[in-house]
Amino acid sequence: MTAATKLRFAWLEVTGLCNEFCDHCYADSGPQGNHGTMTPQDWQNVITQLADMGAADVQFIGGEPTLYPHLDDLITHAHGKGLGIEVFSNLTHIRDHLWDIFRQCGVKLATSYYSDTADDHDAVTNLRGSHRRTRANVQTALALGIPVRGGVVAVRQGQRTAEAAQDLLALGVREVGGDRTRAFGRGSRGAAPAIADLCGHCAHEKCAIGPTGDVWPCVLGRFLTMGNVRETPLADIWAGPGTTRVTADITAVHGEGAQSCTPPQFLPMCGPCQPCVPTVQHCDPAEADSPQAGPATIAAPA
């Protein structure tokens, strides 16, 4: 792995504010979060730099990105720069004008879905009514012709993850994948983050940028800072000593040629892992053949 690879994709974590408070949240976001120190102009500058660097896609994340008041402007700016756009949202709080922006700018949506029952889903999100709203907005998006990807994260025993995946497919979601709880943020249960818990493919053609401008190798690797876009142009960070150091540290633990497992719940630029489909319990390619792996979820037939 080298820092000289082309940057194709970036997660843009525009806020740490979320209306849910999931026990396993890798970003440790929730109702007490905030929008950080990045201004709307800072984010527009980053998006312009990504386009100038030849990036293909961005994904707006949080927290809950739809709670960020300038999301519509950033989507419009990214669309104007020719970038593919996905918004990873819990789909509980979609303002009416955002639906128009999503359609006008060809936005794709991705969401987490924890169970086919409201009680199980809401127990994970710690927000009563979240299952009903998420499910209803999945249906709204599909009715509007907006593509939706679903991710089912195994968090609790008896959560009905397989049934959750089948429910999404029955609604018309054409791509459903799975993951397990990752040992980061609240999901770590207080343990220090470790490079060994990453997939090993971090910073390979991708990076994440947080609400304070810090640049990370991926959304889970936020303890590995490569630079800050409020201080240094992104191209200089990507080709700079911070990225070289971080990628060397990751390679030292995972070795060269780490498999391109891309938690959480895959990248819009690559779709499900190949050649095997991720399972509800695991998305690690190395674990796909494990007897402990759960039932696989599949894309809906064309």
TrEMBL record:
Domain Radical SAM core as annotated: residue spans: 13-151
GO MF terms held by the record: catalytic activity; iron-sulfur cluster binding; metal ion binding
Keywords: Iron, Iron-sulfur, Metal-binding, S-adenosyl-L-methionine
This protein's record includes keyword Repeat: no
Taxonomic placement: Bacteria, Bacillati, Actinomycetota, Actinomycetes, Kitasatosporales
4Fe4S-binding SPASM domain boundaries: 201-247
Stated name of the protein: Radical SAM protein
Signal sequence interval, chain numbering: none
Organism listed in the record: Streptomyces qinzhouensis
Top-level taxonomic group: Bacteria
InterPro entries attached to this UniProt entry: 4Fe4S-binding_SPASM_dom, Aldolase_TIM, Radical_SAM_PqqE_MftC-like, rSAM, rSAM_sf
Gene3D superfamilies: Aldolase class I
